[in-house]
Amino acid sequence: ERDLALTLEEIYSGCIKKMKISRRVMNDDGHTSSIRDKILTINVKKGWSSGTRITFQKEGDQGPNSIPADIVFIVKDKAHPLYKRKGADLHYVATIPLSKAL
User: Fold this and answer.
1) Strand runs (DSSP E) across the chain, as ranges?
2) Alpha-carbon gap, residue 40 to 21, rounded angstroms
3) Distances (CA, A) of 21 to 1, 41, 61
4) Contacts of 82 (CB under 8 A, 6+ apart)
């Protein structure tokens, strides 16, 4: 499991994220393995919440006589300087003087 940090703007509009992973892959002889890089593409959909899990089946390390594991990314919200996310809502705290509030 790996974290996928997204900004509020990316979650609001959706985006495409490319994540580079290194994994152990079996060679053609079936006895030895090597490390290879692979780029996984994640289509972030609008409105995903923190904790959303994205699973890539059988993209993990390979070994002799073993099935490759799944790679799982978990969405995490990046901190925003103005807004805080609470569920599906955005909260903004504004400090205003009393004279403007009335």
Assistant:
1) 2-6, 15-26, 33-44, 53-56, 71-77, 83-86, 89-92
2) 7
3) 12, 11, 10
4) 92
Helix, strand, coil in percent for the chain, rounding step 5: 10, 50, 40
pTM attached to this predicted model: 0.78
Q: What is the DSSP letter of 60?
A: S
- Residue 8 three-state SS: helix
Residue closest to 38 by CA, chosen among 67, 9, 61, 5: 61
Question: 35-65: per-residue pLDDT in tens?
Answer: 889 999 999 999 898 899 999 998 888 877 7
CA distance 101 to 3: 41
pLDDT per position as a tens digit, 10-28:
998 999 999 999 988 888 7
